[in-house]
Specification:
heterotrimer, A alpha+beta (201), B mainly alpha (191), C mainly alpha (203), A: alpha+beta, five-stranded antiparallel beta sheet, two-stranded parallel ribbon, 2 helices, elongated, B: 191 residues, mainly alpha
Chain lengths: 201, 191, 203
């Protein structure tokens, strides 16, 4: 065989073999990978809206999705806002649970962050940060208490305690929460968050 | 605003070399002289910007519409390898002086993980077209900045008395560590 | 063709030709994912998988590949196994896959793997290539373990997530940040050079 022909034949056959092998691997793992992603989101929703039995995606765009958490009767008992934005080092992705009128927060969960370990990364820590997000008044903008108050009782209903030594990370989370809340409130007013509208499945 | 944030953070905050550890081989290998470091940086910036464009097109026009996600790694690496060849031939034809300056660095770039890393990161973060290009260009500038500073320090180090076991790669790594420490100061610039 | 005994073929990867400490190859993953032992270990094993299977395939079809297209062929073969490793981790170990992020696909540009194909598997028998791949992988995993153990213990006070340092210990956060990676590897390399120097001068 001529060299050039042999080169083409060898490269093509290696390419074809590898392609078909990968197609099989891709096919075998596709469902499981999709399931893993879905499960991660669902677990976060159940975490931020306690009592959720099933979930439904109500709205989606880049950097912001809104899910409804439903009880056993299928009534929406709260919204879960899945949002991301710029943090101290890299993007922060979070899930915030609120009641159905968007006036009180339920809980906050940080899904993805690369803040400084030991300082900014405390935004994932329940004791020093996340506990303050439970049951806050979010009918207006939430604000940070700086310097941090000693106990949760000293805070106003719409205030969050700052992490000492990680003000910027705390502010970044606050910024993402406030802007996504405002956005979601607008969506709610425009009637884009009704669960009946997309209740096909 | 978002575009500016991507650009600045690609250069300073999430610097390719000092934060993602991509492109370490050329960073240590071609940073002995400022001139060659500058040419290397230029070549990488050039190829990175083109790679950002091409990998975005492949990902969004071919791989995603046909659900060929599992071919991403194979197709990216093949495209990058052939792209570098094409760029090399093109530059040799168009501008011999530029080829003289960049020529020997271009083949080195093929196996440079920074280029592959750029294509993968842009795909992973789901960047739009303009964002991907800005990210590619910014990352290239970030690489250039890091390698030039490194070369500047190493030129001075030639005159210093470095202990025997620390010579060469070791002192380069320790300098890189101090440089990374300095770049930590940029964190939190963008809010 | 290599003329070493099988034992020597394996052992050389651990020290004499250790890919990280002696050949300075594959530094990107070595620096990037060694902030925690679990990540370093997962990375080491994923690289092992890719190196072993690429070496097996390349050494068994080496006579069929014309030398002009050998690099392109090796790259396709390596990229195929990297994709398998990436999909496998994403499907069965999602948290690890998330931690390692783009560094799993980046195994494809790890110079150790292409380097072994070009320098060894393309010239030696399947059996020898397997032993060589095993030895090199063991050397790589060893380097990842040493580096990540130092960084995790000093930087977080833990090993594989378990607290090993007492309450008195204030973690050196810098060790799990990028600067700690560069400096730790630098010091380890200096140690490796120093040991090598002393054993040589004694002979």
């Amino acid at each position: 065989m001529k060299l050039s022909v042999r080169m083409v034949v060898v490269l093509t056959s290696i390419g074809l073999l590898s392609g078909s092998f990968l197609a099989t691997v891709g096919h075998l793992t596709k469902e499981r990978i999709a399931l893993n992603k879905q499960r991660e989101i669902e677990e976060a929703i159940i975490q931020v809206i306690p009592g959720t039995v099933s979930t439904q995606k109500l709205y989606e765009e880049r950097d912001l999705s809104v899910y409804g958490g439903k009880d056993e009767q299928g009534t929406v008992i709260g919204f879960a806002i899945h949002a991301s934005g710029i943090g101290f080092q890299d993007r922060i992705t979070l899930m915030l649970g609120t009641n159905t009128s968007l006036e009180r927060t339920n809980r906050l969960a940080i899904l993805d962050q690369k803040e400084t370990p030991g300082l900014g990364a405390k935004i994932t820590d329940a004791e020093s940060f996340l506990q303050y997000w439970e049951n806050r008044d979010c009918s207006g903008a939430i604000s940070l208490r700086k310097p941090a108050a000693r106990s949760a009782e000293e805070l106003l209903p719409s205030e969050i305690n700052t992490i000492t030594g990680a003000t910027i990370s705390s502010e970044a989370v606050l910024g993402i929460v406030n802007s996504s809340l405002e956005h979601t409130r607008r969506l709610l007013k425009e009637g884009k968050l009704s669960s009946e509208a997309q209740d096909v499945n | 605003m978002e575009l500016v944030a991507i650009f600045i953070s690609a250069i300073l905050i999430n610097n390719f070399v000092l934060y993602y550890f991509l492109g370490i081989c050329p960073f240590l290998g071609v940073s002995k002289k400022i001139d060659s470091a500058f040419s290397m940086g230029l070549a990488v910036t050039f190829v990175m910007t083109i790679t950002a464009v091409v990998s975005w097109v492949i990902n969004h026009w071919i791989l995603i519409p046909h659900e060929l996600d599992y071919l991403k790694i194979v197709s990216f690496i093949l495209v990058i390898a052939s792209l570098v060849q094409l760029v090399e031939m093109f530059i040799r034809k168009i501008s011999p002086p530029l080829y003289q300056a960049l020529g020997i660095y271009l083949p080195l770039i093929t196996t440079n993980c920074a280029i592959m890393g750029l294509a993968l990161l842009a795909a992973l973060r789901d960047y739009g077209f303009v964002e991907a290009v800005i990210f590619g260009f910014g990352s290239g500038l970030g690489f250039t900045l890091a390698i030039i500073i490194m070369a500047g320090i190493r030129e001075q180090l030639d005159l210093a008395e470095v202990p025997e076991p620390l010579k060469g790669a070791v002192i380069a790594l320790i300098v890189a560590g101090i440089l990374a420490l300095a770049f930590n100061g940029f964190i939190g610039m963008i809010k | 063709m290599s003329t070493k005994t099988i034992g020597q073929e394996f052992i050389k990867g651990l020290w004499d030709e250790n890919p990280v400490f002696r050949q300075l190859l594959g530094l990107c993953p070595t620096l990037a994912v060694t902030g925690a032992v679990i990540n370093g270990l997962a990375m080491g094993l994923a690289t092992t998988f890719v190196l072993i299977f690429s070496s097996l395939v390349v050494s068994s079809i080496k006579k069929l590949i014309p030398s002009q297209v050998r690099i392109a062929s090796y790259i396709i073969i390596i990229a195929t196994f990297v994709t398998v490793a990436d999909r496998f981790l994403a499907a069965f170990f999602p948290p690890i896959s998330k931690n390692l992020g783009p560094y799993v696909p980046l195994i494809v540009v790890n110079c150790i793997i292409l380097g072994r194909q070009e320098a060894f598997s393309s010239k030696n028998t399947v059996w020898r290539s397997l032993i060589d791949a095993l030895g090199m992988s063991a050397g790589f995993v060893l380097a990842m373990l040493v580096l990540s153990a130092i960084r995790e213990i000093l930087g977080a006070g833990t090993f594989l997530g378990y607290q090993v340092m007492g309450a008195w210990f204030e973690p050196w956060i810098i060790m799990i940040l990028p600067p700690g990676a560069f400096i730790t590897l630098g010091i380890l390399l200096a140690l490796a050079l120093h040991i090598e120097h002393r054993t040589k001068s004694r002979k």
